[in-house]
Amino acid sequence: MTSDVTIFTDESVECEGPVVPGPALDQWVVGAGATVLEEAGIEPPGAMDFPPRLVQAEYLAWVWDRVVASLPANVVVETHLERAVELTEKNTVRLESGREIQADVVVLALGYLDRELTPEEVAWGNAATKHGLTYLPPGYTADVDLSDLRAGENVIVRGLGQAFIDLMVLLTEGRGGWYDECSGLLTYHPSGNEPILYAGSRRGVPYHAKLGYTVAGTTPVPTRYLTKEALDSLDGQVLDYARQLRPLIDKELTYAHYRQLFTAHPDRTTWTWDEFATVLDRTFPTDEEFRTAVARAVPSEHDHFDLAAVDRPLAGVGFTDRDQLDQTVVQLIENDLLRRADPQYSPDLAVFNALLGVYSVLSVAITEGRLSDEDRVRHVETEWHGFFSFVASGPPPRRLEELLALHRAGLVKFTGPDLTVALDNDQFVGRSPAVPGELRARAFVEARLPRPDVLAATDPLLRGLLGNGLLAADELIAGDGTSLGGGQLKADSHCRAIRADGTVHPELFLLGPSVSGSAGSSGFSRPYFNGPGFRQNDAVARRLLQLLTTSTKAGHHGS
Questions:
Q1: What is the Cα–Cα distance from 322 to 414, expressed in whole angstroms?
Q2: CB atoms < 10 A from the CB of 184, how many?
Q3: Per the database record, which ranges form the FAD-dependent urate hydroxylase HpyO/Asp monooxygenase CreE-like FAD/NAD(P)-binding domain (predicted)?
Q4: Is the distance from CB of 199 to CB of 157 less than 8 angstroms?
Q5: 301 and 240 in one domain?
Q6: Digit-coded pLDDT (tens) for 126-145
Q7: Are 235 and 384 contained in the same domain?
Q8: Dihedral sign, CA of 433, 436, 438, 444?
Q9: Per the structure, how many domains does the chain have?
Q10: Strands of 106-109's sheet in order across
């Protein structure tokens, strides 16, 4: 929401500072940003609205201008609006134009990187071309050419996360359709240019809507079970995710849910919070003793927290036909929209906040080398991040309302969980074990982001750094001998790049989601939530200044 976005530190941020407060997005749109948005012809969103990307972009640009304007006279910021294509051991940066910049310190603030297709994706593409079909591999939806998806034709879509929502918008409103609410129910009016999307995934349901409310006094709570101290007390320098970490994560989220339920909604419980917490402290959520306590202390099943059921709502469910599947998925979406708008279900908000705390602890564990590469890639970067995104990083409620309207218009249908796709008789064929029959289509879209693998990145700068050993990202091999890809770039706990020979580059720093253990890469920081990205960036900035001070005293120019 607009009130959940800030680029400024505040008194909650635990860093050496200085802390320089500034307006969060909700304050900016009615203050300094009001004129900016008016001149851009953009309607300012309310504090509880989900702001469009254009509003966020205007805010980021304004913050940048303010920061640059506030610098002392002896600091100059120079931007080069071109690609950097090479970086040498001596920190010479070569730009695409051939210009060279000699630096004392370099920071690679890396976002999500374009990557080469996997061998499987190349094979899909070749087969599709051979049979005259359309195959769109994983990618950033706004960059994908969708022109081969024809009006009125069936398209099998694998993925129901944010990439799917973006795809859905581009293929409907983006092709001239429009919505109205004249009848009290959101109705989609097709342009006639839309394809028919048959959408599925492992779960078979779209991501949960973003929470549409706040609760006074809700702040991040330090983790109770999954703490650095708890991890330090476990056997082994390298921990086993499934055996040692996952039970603590499950317990952490369970604790957050029930603590909020018992303290904010005591009328829906029959025990005191202290009685219930005592049982949870000595058990785990899967233990019979704890399940019995839940049954006795929390009468309504709607107030129970079952992590497995949250993660896979259609697990073990079978459908007689596609109509029954569609009805079930529609009901799940409708219930989700109601629940995510109702503060009576504030335990959902508590779990959301707990997820952020868990992410922070896992980032530290990764940076300190407490997880094996296999656990990091398979469990944290894939399994855990997928669950986090499903629960906490879904679309605004309006997008799910549009999804339902498109379903009513016959333009979006559901395939069921565990969707598999194969080629048969010059067509793509989609199947789900939960529903009989199959789907056939000329087009197949992988509506998901590419899995991070910096060894497959197409960026020339990174390819050069990896090739000459200035950066490291090991080819990861699982215990069964299968390749896990290249994962992320390696950095030490101070965000300094680790070279291929294991040494640390003292003047090259790495930040962002393409870097193992980097904080603050999961989204914008929230006001008064002690954002880990702020804390990490403050520490890195301090180290940069120390290095530059040293180099300036030694006679260097300090760039």
A1: 8
A2: 6
A3: 2-112
A4: yes
A5: yes
A6: 999 999 999 999 998 888 99
A7: yes
A8: negative
A9: 2
A10: 106-109, 504-511, 496-498
